[in-house]
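Spend some time on the protein that follows and explain the fold to me:
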Amino acid sequence: MKTSGIADLAVQRARRWLRGAQVALEDGRWDDAVYAAQMCSEHAAKAVLISFGIDFPKKHDVSSAFATLSARPGLPAWFTSKVDTIVGVLGELASERAMAGYGFEEGIDAEYFKDYAPEALKKAENALGLCSRLVKTLFGGGKKKS
């Protein structure tokens, strides 16, 4: 499969994670919303990294690999100006993901994330929108538009 196809699949997967986060938020499953928001942002970022052939760690926090894009020549200015923001989102959501997924081990329930979940969802939506737009710009389309 070509790089463009793999990147498009990553964007599609990110969209499904986003939808899962939205449904979890509607259902009051705040921890699931945070978990899915993190996965959305991670897959969106990985779509961009794949697009450029950038190796990334096989872990959930890809913020350090993504940060290398700020020095990459030829990126559209609208994207370059947002790289640091996306890097921050990736790091933040990755750190919250573990607690959202496994907080029960520490006695933390879903209610702990009630106030943060809508914010996490917004951040994931923004990251996905930017990453999806870049992938579309690079490869001229894809199956779904963001």
